[in-house]
Amino acid sequence: MIKLNTPSSPHFHGPSTVTTVMLKVMLALLPGILIYAWMFGWGVIINIVLASITALATEALMLRMRQRPVMMYLFDGSALVTAMLLALALPPLAPWWLVVIGSAFAIIFAKHLYGGLGFNPFNPAMVGYVMLLISFPREMTSWLAPLSLGEQNLSLGQSLSFVFSGSLPAGLSLDALTMATPLDSLKTELGLNKAMQEITASPIFGMLGGTGWEWINIAFLAGGLWLIHKKIISWHVPIAMLGSLALISFLFFIIKPGAYASPLFHLFSGGAILGAFFIATDPVSGATTPKGRLYFGAGVGVLTYIIRSWGGYPDAVAFSVLLMNMAAPTIDYYTRPRVFGHGGGN
Amino acid sequence: MDKSYSEINREGLWTNNVALVQILGLCPLLAVTSTTINGLGLGIATTMTLVLSSLIVSLIRHYVKQEVRIPVFVMIIASVVTAIELAMNAYFHELYKILGIFVPLIVTNCAILGRAEAFAFKNTPGKAAMDGFMMGIGFAAVLIVLGAMREILGQGTFFAQAHLMFGEIGRMMTITLVEDYRGFLLAILPPGAFIGLGLLIAVKNVIDERGKKRDAKKIIPVTKIEQSVATG
Predict the structure, then answer these.
(1) Which neighbouring-strand residues pair with B176?
(2) Which of A106, B30, B142, B160 could serve as B193's disulfide partner, Cβ 3.0–4.6 Å?
(3) Is the Cβ–Cβ distance between B83 and B108 less than 8 Å?
(4) How far is A109 from chain B (nearest CA, A)?
């Protein structure tokens, strides 16, 4: 073995390890999570706790099976971030088995079968989410109404009993609790040939996006901007994704405002902000070159708009991220920066 | 070159399994295995095709010129498949309707042409038929296991619609494992087939790996002598 001696100073110690990066990402998610829980109740917190426990347990199991150091990888925080992102994408008050199956699938199939952290071609949280969405469409689309609009709010105990046994307090039906999300109702109502003004007059639509949703997204935006400021993520992917989403929705909006939602609505509803700052920026499954990240982000933004407007599902961030994950190696291949000292040709 | 019957058996069922090792015939394998019965039906049809086509190819191997062998193989396989398709249409009409295009598509299953080219054309009829049968059984076994996995996960039943193959008694053979099962759509949809096949291949590799480790612990010289005899 070659012995490498440490040459003399100066040295910079990079303080950035996987663990610190993941901790900062979780910290940046916190304001969004708090507002989300404030708007939608205890279900959000229950989802996150359940997903985290499952993710850590399956992570430990898989590491053991693959004969890797369990403790070192378990506490790098990557499984926790996956679990949190997945939990944030699930409907609050989802049945417990939904959360457990989703997080286990994300960790086992999307992460460890490909070789663990750093080798997964797809974003594990989004693989788990899409698997659930395809397999259990009914459970995955029954969203709670934001607290300000719902007639009934569940306490922690009531939420827990619903999540684990599906039983609701007497005199309360699931229909009274759930409500279509803004994106969902926009899609249905447009399908009924209603005019945009008529649709957005409903109380579930707020100033920017959906009622409740806009504040959650603003909180995620703040967290994301802090991550850029801390240089945990680069600005390329979020700017390209939100920019392309805004641009394409603006084009359709000015051509036919009666049939297409405004750019602000597209930016501030569904998972656009969360996806732009926290999901599409995944350093493992996304493009890596600066120029490639611009293309990657733009692709996610455009695909999100296309699937939202003309596809079968109301929101599309997960599908777009997975589709662009597939394209990431090709994007990287064509956007390699010129090697210093090698001619750029023309 | 000449293989013993036991070698033919082992290769067809395990070491050179059509689905798990050669990874051939994936299109029908992935498309029809949403239930056990579908897998069983297609497995039997494919096995019959393999036996008959291998047998015929082997019988005529001295009369067919090397240059035109592939078109001849294709003609033979197509005739056999057509006969089997008509027979299925007559006797198992419902199952035939469910399997649909995948029965005539057995013609294009590379495994069958592969066996004709790689084995039947160079061996005696008895061995060729045996090879076709074992390869077919190996393929059918994977179809059935994959079908069972997907059916149990996806619908919570086992042997559903067995009456398509076994007549009215078949209705009693269906086992509902979980009452009021919500259904796990992914297992029924194409991704479930890919994931399921991937897991089966992984299981086979794990078993082989374990076997190798166990063999390595045994006395080594004996195996060396056996090898030299076999190659000599």
Answers:
(1) B157
(2) B30
(3) no
(4) 9
pLDDT at B231: 41
Q: Which domain holds residue A26?
A: 17-178
Pair (A241, A165) in one structural domain: no
A134·B185 Cβ contact <8 A: yes
A277 and A135 in a common domain: no
Closest alpha carbon within chain B to A139:
B182
Q: Are residues A216 and A170 in the same domain?
A: no
Interchain CB contacts (distance < 8 Å): A and B: 14
Interatomic CA distance for residues A255 and A266, integer angstroms: 16
CB contact under 8 A, A135 and B195: no
Which residues of B sit within 8 Å Cβ distance of A? 182, 184-187, 189, 191, 195
Whether residue A167 is contained in a domain is answered as yes
Chain B residue numbers touching A134 (CB-CB < 8 A): 185-186, 189, 191
Q: Do B186 and A134 touch (CB under 8 A)?
A: yes
Nearest by Cα to A188 from A176, A204, A175: A204
The answer to whether the CB atoms of B185 and A131 lie below 8 A apart is no
| Domain boundary assignment for chain B | 5-231
The number of distinct structural domains making up chain A is 2
HEC profile of A29-58: HHHHHHHHHHHHCCHHHHHHHHHHHHHHHH
Question: For the whole model, what pTM was predicted?
Answer: 0.83
With an 8 Å Cβ cutoff, are B189 and A134 in contact?
yes
Asked casually if ipTM beats, i.e. exceeds, 0.90, the reply is: no
Q: What is the pLDDT of residues A207-247, one digit of tens each?
A: 666 777 888 899 999 999 999 998 889 999 999 999 999 99
Which chain B residues have a beta carbon less than 8 Å from that of A135?
184-187
In the prediction, which pLDDT does A244 show?
A: 95
Residue A147 and residue A257 in one domain: no
CA distance A327 to A45: 34
Percent of residues, chain B, with pLDDT higher than 90: 34
> Looking up tokens 């455009």, which residue turns up?
A302
Residues A142 and A207 in one domain: no
Neighbours of A197 (CB within 10 A): 9
User: Which residues of chain B have a CB within 8 Å of the CB of A131?
Assistant: 186
Q: Which residues of B touch A137 (CB under 8 A)?
A: 185
Residues A234 and A165 in one domain: no
Cα separations in angstroms, B73 against B44, B61, B78:
21, 10, 8
Tokens 């209603």 appear where? A194
Read off the pLDDT of residues A54-69 as tens digits, 9 standing for 90 and up: 999 999 999 998 888 8
Work out the average pLDDT over B60-76.
Answer: 91
Q: Are residues A26 and A145 in the same domain?
A: yes
Find the mean pLDDT for residues A97-107.
Answer: 94
Q: What is the three-class DSSP state of B51? A: helix
Closest CA to B26 of B132, B119, B139: B139
Asked if residue A133 belongs to a domain, the reply is yes
B22 secondary structure, DSSP code = S
Same domain, A115 and A62: yes
Task: Output the six-digit token pair for B194.
Answer: 């890919």
